[in-house]
């Protein structure tokens, strides 16, 4: 009985593990803030970026790499959440809320990474609201990704949380007002439930095309650039989407495994669910490896001299270890997951390891898209450039990752991270 | 209305880089920013080598990728055919820099006041008198330019914005030539109205075969070259300018 | 007005706002040959676009929350 009185999923109770997570995240965030203040006062000279051309640098670096990475994760989060709801996939149901939260957080991080990148962040907001141009793919990423996508996924999270909030709003406690606000009078009456189902369906329908456009636009930021060898290509956008799926599913696996550990939710977050996630990963990996081969073939047979310089730099030059590392971190998980599949087993540590590898590969692959095309194979015969991210850049992006962890930790304590069962607390059924 | 352009006579250029210096002085560009850049090339194997030079200002493209991608319309095309950056509006995303195939954009990586060639606040310089005012403070650069009255002239305005060759828009307003063209000792840089068939660059284009850089990109540059050939993959830079910005 | 009608109106208004902001009010598309290609035709057109996106999604909130919801029947 006493068990039932407590809030679900460790809400409101701050255990040691939680404090450790918060402590680590806060440290990273603090370091990030210090690094950013340095960049804000000195200028972006503190980064490893420099001008393309006589200065032999890359004008876009780690920040843009992570913008793409974060937006990709958010894309997968909301896509999976929508699909699970639309198709009513029972096994995956428990990760719907974590996926939605992941989406919102990843978008916030993406927006912050953009702000870290631009030279005049203070101006950026006003100027974009006033002058943003549809012709610039940046408009697509800015207006759709940040405003539309963030707002849409917040609405999505909010509406889907109302039934749970309504249940919790009945319990006295610190968080009651918050839950009451969130529930906004939700009574779980049959007509309300019917509306819930209907609007949920339409929201999913409305979000999916938006997301695909948004993520492809992000691909077009690079794909439509004729002047940068290696960027122009039709494969860029679909490749982006598949890679986004990979990294997103990877992070979701980490989150689900973490929750399973921390909350002891072995029943809801069962191995069957992880098997599904592993299968997702496997399918996406197969798709991506296919793209990789196609990309490589077109580059080595049909490319102009500048393109081959870029791919040389990637395949054999200073960036080779990144490329081959990412290939290894894509093929190894594919191999392991396939093996596991064939043997019909499910090993959680293995799946988690694959999740980590896939994410490292995703970051590496983003790096290879963004950077070598700026430093190698320039269309005019400038000398070859180079780019190594500086400590400040690393501290800022790792600080952003830490911020993600922090936001997630806070959310978990204020709201049920897994959807409540209908009969929780006797329910209102 | 005049539609400006430039014709560069490669047979005259001898790689003295006077135009690069003139540009720096005129536009007060900070350290590491080269709005005009003169390639010095070498081709072939010793003893069969050939040396050539190629000045590269901004091409002021008619179909400019940098203008297309600017998210806030800071980089814009004027009616006079110039491609300019409004430094009141630039948010410093560097998308233009990434989109330009010619590598002509310069970002202000640090506060330009701290990025001058000489620290003019150094007390040992007290009492130094210069006939034309301080070399880093061309007053014309602060004036609004053109019919739109936008702040587009000059370099090193503030940190975190992008700048590039303006064809000296502030000098054009006064009816002067761009500093590079005015200072080239052998008149290799011929500037004028390309719409006027009698202007010096138009005449030169009629007389000599010409090419533009990276025609295949479809950028429609307003800078033409005569008296030479475009660089090939065999062109090596003899000594690349080491443009650096340090903390 | 019942909730369905309001929601539909919001969706329609939101999408039209997006359409007009993108194609009519913001800076024109095409090869940029004059400063006109770099300035929105109506000031703050991008803000209108974003507002349109928000309207569309807000319609779902309005649809669910309108009228307080306590046992009220579907309109
Ligand atoms: S040369 Fe580069 S910066 Fe100049 S107009 Fe062309 S694309 Fe723009
Ligand atoms: S750096 Fe400035 S001029 Fe260049 S694209 Fe961005 S906002 Fe436009």
Structural class of chain C: mainly alpha
Strand neighbour order, sheet with most strands of chain B: 8-1-10-9
Provide the succession of SSEs of chain B.
EHEEHEEHEEHHEHEEE
Summed up, the helix count of chain C is: 2
Bound compounds, each kind once, are: iron/sulfur cluster
Assembly status = heterotrimer
Number of E-type strands of chain B: 11
Biggest pleated sheet of chain B: 4 strands, mixed
**Helical content class of chain B:** 10-25%
Text of the CATH class of chain B? Alpha Beta
Distance from first to last alpha carbon of chain B: 44 Å
Task: Give an account of the 3D structure.
The complex is a heterotrimer of chains A (429), B (247) and C (75). Chain A has 429 residues and is mainly alpha-helical. Chain A is 72% helix and 0% strand. Chain A has one domain (10-202, 209-214, 253-420). Chain A contains 15 helices and no strands. Chain A is globular. Chain B has six helices and eleven strands. In chain B, strand 2 (37-43) and strand 3 (50-56) form a beta hairpin. Chain C is built from two helices and no strands. Classes of the chains: A mainly alpha (429), B alpha+beta (247), C mainly alpha (75). At the A-B interface, helix 5 and helix 6 of A face strand 2, helix 2, helix 3, strand 6 and strand 11 of B. One iron/sulfur cluster (SF4) is lined by residues 58-61, 64-66, 83, 100, 102, 104-105, 164, 219 of chain B.
Which structural traits does this protein have?
heterotrimer; B: 247 residues; alpha+beta; Alpha-Beta Plaits; 4-stranded mixed β-sheet; 3-stranded antiparallel β-sheet; 6 helices; 11 strands; globular; C: 75 residues; mainly alpha; 2 helices; 0% strand; disordered C terminus; binds iron/sulfur cluster
Brief account:
The complex is a heterotrimer of chains A (429), B (247) and C (75). With 247 residues, chain B is of the alpha+beta class.
What does the secondary structure layout of this molecule look like, with pairings?
The complex is a heterotrimer of chains A (429), B (247) and C (75).
Chain A: H1 2-5, H2 16-42, H3 62-87, H4 96-117, H5 121-131, H6 137-168, H7 176-183, H8 190-223, H9 236-263, H10 271-302, H11 305-315, H12 320-343, H13 348-370, H14 372-375, H15 391-414
Chain B: E1 4-9, H1 18-27, E2 37-43, E3 50-56, H2 65-69, E4 75-77, E5 83-85, H3 95-99, E6 106-107, E7 162-163, H4 169-173, H5 179-183, E8 189-193, H6 200-207, E9 210-211, E10 223-226, E11 236-237
Parallel strand pairs in B: 1-10
Antiparallel strand pairs in B: 1-8, 2-3, 2-11, 4-5, 6-7, 9-10
Chain C: H1 3-25, H2 45-65
